[in-house]
Design goal:
204 residues; 29% helix; 5 helices; alpha/beta; binds adenosine-5'-triphosphate; 9 strands
């Protein structure tokens, strides 16, 4: 991203944001509610156009938006088949492996409208990951997760980086800064590298 600017109805949200994300990196962006984190991610995924500047993702992209892209009437399994077609995959092995890693295999035949919020978020994450993307853009990926799943999420994110994936995690609140390679803070429309404050106790 180079010098990206975005305003909504004349109100600037991003005032010249530049960001590099390389293969194998786990990068975090933290910022207050309304700081523009989702706007930044939506520009990166191509969902939203910047007013000026350049935003480019090279490679296959996996995106986990803040609002889950799920349909209540479909089962977990039906979502996997739907996304399998969308991604043009031959098999669902990786999706099943991810479901297993997130402790969700037991929900495969359950309709989404009957799932808890945390379980829906797990499915949202599996749908973003099941095609083994080279760039992973995650908006508040661990909202609603219990502690065990939260830890599994970070293990998974690090394992993906070790396989060469570039992972960007955006959150209004984050712990465990030490799990990240770089932490940025978005504030007043500007992105700055944040000081690492140890293993806990920092947020927006
Ligand atoms: N389509 C839109 N039209 C007008 N204003 C918008 C639009 N989308 C976002 N905004 C405003 O832009 C600002 C940034 O929103 P954004 O969702 O990017 O913030 P965020 O950092 O992701 O917030 P949160 O942590 O609450 O998810 C907010 O003030 C929001 O109200």
């Amino acid at each position: 991203m180079r010098d990206v600017r975005k305003s909504y109805r004349g109100r600037p949200v991003l005032r010249g944001v530049s960001l590099d994300l390389f293969p194998g990196q786990l990068v975090g962006v933290v910022g207050e509610n309304g700081a523009g984190k989702s706007t930044l991610l939506r520009i990166l995924t191509g969902d939203l156009a910047a007013d000026s500047g350049v935003a480019e993702c090279r490679g296959t992209v996996g995106s986990c938006p803040q609002d889950a892209v799920l349909h209540g009437a479909f089962t977990v399994e039906q979502h996997l088949w739907f996304f399998r077609t969308a991604y043009g995959l031959n098999r669902l092995d990786r999706a099943y492996e991810l479901l297993d890693q997130l402790n969700c295999t037991g929900y495969r035949n359950q309709r989404v409208e009957t799932l808890s919020g945390g379980t829906r978020q797990k499915l949202n994450l599996v749908l973003a990951l099941m095609h083994d993307p080279q760039v992973l853009l995650l908006d508040e990926p661990y909202q609603g997760f219990d502690w065990d799943t939260y830890l599994r999420f970070w293990d998974l994110a690090r394992a993906l980086c070790d396989r060469g994936c570039a992972v960007l995690v955006v959150s209004h609140l984050a712990y465990d800064a030490s799990r990240l390679d770089i932490l940025y803070r978005l504030g007043a429309g500007v992105l700055r590298e944040a000081e690492q404050c140890g293993t806990s106790g920092w947020g927006s």
